């Protein structure tokens, strides 16, 4: 089995206290709203993964190389410049209704929640959770 500690691990840090430190104030408010949304949709409490990812649920992965670890099923990070969503299984998703955003490999970037359609975001989160449930049943 491959060794080496994963960089992003679940911590015991207080999520609410972390959100109190987020700047600017609008990002802090958006972070609280996203945390509530993801908790409701996942049925899981928020946990801090590493210094800044707020994750919900967990799964265990193992690569062909033997490397393995745990990660949150869905999550987000309220960064200074934008919200970063960690959602899987959205390659065939329809992002047209979402509004202003950009995408990277496995990430969705949103400057402010006011720029997007919250119903479309909710649908993407639900799709990601279903994808994770298919790959990693609870």
TrEMBL record:
Pfam families: DUF1801. Residues 28-127 form the YdhG-like domain. It comes from the Bacteria. This is YdhG-like domain-containing protein. It comes from Sphingobium yanoikuyae ATCC 51230.
């Amino acid at each position: 089995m491959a060794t080496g500690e994963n960089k992003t691990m679940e911590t015991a840090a207080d999520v609410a206290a972390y959100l109190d430190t987020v700047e600017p104030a609008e990002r802090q408010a958006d972070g609280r709203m996203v945390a509530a949304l993801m908790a409701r949709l996942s049925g899981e409490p928020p946990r801090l993964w590493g210094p800044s990812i707020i994750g919900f649920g967990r799964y265990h992965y193992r690569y062909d190389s033997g490397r393995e670890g745990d990660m949150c099923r869905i999550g987000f990070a309220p960064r200074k410049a934008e919200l970063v969503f960690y959602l899987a299984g959205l390659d065939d998703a329809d992002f047209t209704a979402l509004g202003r955003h950009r995408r990277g490999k496995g990430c969705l970037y949103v400057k402010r929640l006011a720029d997007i359609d919250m119903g479309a975001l909710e649908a993407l989160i639900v799709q990601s959770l279903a994808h994770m449930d298919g790959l990693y049943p609870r």
